[in-house]
């Protein structure tokens, strides 16, 4: 597979876009065999795959293929450096694949940082407005500066333990690290996730990025932080008191509530979807910190659900932008009368985003809420607020766009192309199909 990716990177023929697209879509199906991977994982040379990394790898390949499908109108049809664009997406997919599959600490850190470079090129090269320079600078400064404590901690621990291997350090980890080590190791992942208070780079990057940049940011790059937190919590043992962990969970849930309030008063389509990511990822972090098995399973499931659902909403926002040339929700209304197919798609994705049946999002949120209630019954107050606010801003989002007074220029949006409907269906089908067999998320720890 790696040799195929290297060949496609240096391939510059006439069909380079199509070959790269079909490679990523086919390999997302071929890699489904890793759903049945052994609980102990699989080591091959410097690569290590287990339940967590294999599921996120399949998500990465799937979303990378959908990125090329979503960008067909704005890049391929308009001939906007299409070969270079598909090369950027393929390199980003390769870097993410290596990040999820290496077990050496230095390679882990290296690919964690290198994933920023293709993303920056996507934002700067194919973004919409001049503010994309400021957004790219924000993203680089936030993530690179937060990663320096992680590098120092990893080097110091590896020198003391005489190994750079994650699996060896997991067996040797007998010392209990205090909360200074916790912030040193996890600060970079909290910014990447992003946790509330470290999230200011995310709405800027999302708003200025092209649709493919927003998709890969929401679907995969935020999951690098979640994967790092789950991996490090399984390797290192930390000595905490109950109050510190409780404070951390409350900050995650309170951040979700505050960003939900921002979503309710938001007028920009992409900003609303970007802020909703902060709430979902904060909930996922709270479930992981509780340490319960059901919390870890729910967190992994939440990462997959959010990746597909948020990516689909960004695609829909981009379709509306391409048809109307505006992302303002004040200029939208009554779209259900002219484009009922898009209205149905958006309704399904909105109820998926708020965690309603028949999607797998419902199960992930229920598992996370159970783990937090098991940790402390006092958290039920925050959980109820999160459930209410999640339903509120998603329904407001749908009603504002598709109901109400019909704008005079909305008639331009009545035509749907087959590739647009296919793109939406490819986002929603996994969310429904995985409800038939949830065995792949069981026994994560």
TrEMBL record:
The keyword Membrane appears for this protein: yes
Protein name, entry field: NADH-ubiquinone oxidoreductase chain 4
Spans through the membrane: 7-32, 52-72, 84-102, 108-128, 140-159, 179-202, 214-238, 244-265, 272-294, 300-321, 330-354, 374-400, 421-441
Catalytic activity entry: a ubiquinone + NADH + 5 H(+)(in) = a ubiquinol + NAD(+) + 4 H(+)(out)
Key word Chaperone present: no
Gene Ontology BP terms: ATP synthesis coupled electron transport; electron transport coupled proton transport
Residue ranges occupied by any NADH:ubiquinone oxidoreductase chain 4 N-terminal domain in the UniProt entry: 3-98
Keyword field: Electron transport, Membrane, Mitochondrion, NAD, Respiratory chain, Translocase, Transmembrane, Transmembrane helix, Transport, Ubiquinone
UniProt GO molecular function: NADH dehydrogenase (ubiquinone) activity; NADH dehydrogenase activity; ubiquinone binding
Membrane topology per record: Multi-pass membrane protein
Major site of localization recorded for this protein: mitochondrion
Protein purpose: Core subunit of the mitochondrial membrane respiratory chain NADH dehydrogenase (Complex I) which catalyzes electron transfer from NADH through the respiratory chain, using ubiquinone as an electron acceptor. Essential for the catalytic activity and assembly of complex I.
EC number(s) given by UniProt: 7.1.1.2
Location in or out of the cell: Mitochondrion membrane
Biological classification of the source: Eukaryota, Metazoa, Spiralia, Lophotrochozoa, Mollusca
Location of the NADH:quinone oxidoreductase/Mrp antiporter transmembrane domain: 104-388
Domain of life according to the entry: Eukaryota
Similarity annotation: Belongs to the complex I subunit 4 family.
GO cellular component: mitochondrial membrane
């Amino acid at each position: 597979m790696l040799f195929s990716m290297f060949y496609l990177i240096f391939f510059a023929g006439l069909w380079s876009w199509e070959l790269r697209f079909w490679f990523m879509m086919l390999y997302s199906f071929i890699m489904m065999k890793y759903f049945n991977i052994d609980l102990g994982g699989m080591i091959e040379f410097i690569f290590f795959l287990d339940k967590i990394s294999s599921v996120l790898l399949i998500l990465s390949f799937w979303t990378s293929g959908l990125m090329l499908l979503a960008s067909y109108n704005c890049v391929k049809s308009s001939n906007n450096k299409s070969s270079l664009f598909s090369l950027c997406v393929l390199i980003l997919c390769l870097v993410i694949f290596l990040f999820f599959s290496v077990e050496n600490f230095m390679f882990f850190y290296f690919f964690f940082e290198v994933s920023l470079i293709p993303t920056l090129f996507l934002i700067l090269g194919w973004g919409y407005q001049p503010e994309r320079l400021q957004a790219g600078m924000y993203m680089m400064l936030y993530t690179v500066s937060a990663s320096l404590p992680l590098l120092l901690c990893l080097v110091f621990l590896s020198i003391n333990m005489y190994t750079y291997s994650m699996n060896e350090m997991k067996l040797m980890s007998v010392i209990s690290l205090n909360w200074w080590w916790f912030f040193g190791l996890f600060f970079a992942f909290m910014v990447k996730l992003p946790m509330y208070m470290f999230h200011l780079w995310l709405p800027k990057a999302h708003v200025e990025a092209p649709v493919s940049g927003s998709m890969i940011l929401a679907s995969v790059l935020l999951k690098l932080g979640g994967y790092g937190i789950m991996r490090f919590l399984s390797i290192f043992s930390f000595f905490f008191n109950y109050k510190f962990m409780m404070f951390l969970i409350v900050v995650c849930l309170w951040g979700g509530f505050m960003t939900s309030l921002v979503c309710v008063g938001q007028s920009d389509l992409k900003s609303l979807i970007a802020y909703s990511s902060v709430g979902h990822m904060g909930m996922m972090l709270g479930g992981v910190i509780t340490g319960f098995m059901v919390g870890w399973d729910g967190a992994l499931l939440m990462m997959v659900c959010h990746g597909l659902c948020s990516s689909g909403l960004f695609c829909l926002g981009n379709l509306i932008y391409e048809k109307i040339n505006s992302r303002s929700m004040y200029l939208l209304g009554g779209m259900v009368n002219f484009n009922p197919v898009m209205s149905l798609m958006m309704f399904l994705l909105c109820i998926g985003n708020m965690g309603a049946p028949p999607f797998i999002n419902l199960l992930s949120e229920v598992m996370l809420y159970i783990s937090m209630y098991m940790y402390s019954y006092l958290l039920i107050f925050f959980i109820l607020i999160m459930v209410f606010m999640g339903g509120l801003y998603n329904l407001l989002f749908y009603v504002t766009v598709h109901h109400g007074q019909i704008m005079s220029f909305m008639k331009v949006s009545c035509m749907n192309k087959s590739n647009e409907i296919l793109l939406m269906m490819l986002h929603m089908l996994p969310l429904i199909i995985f409800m038939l067999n949830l065995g792949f998320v069981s026994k994560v720890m």
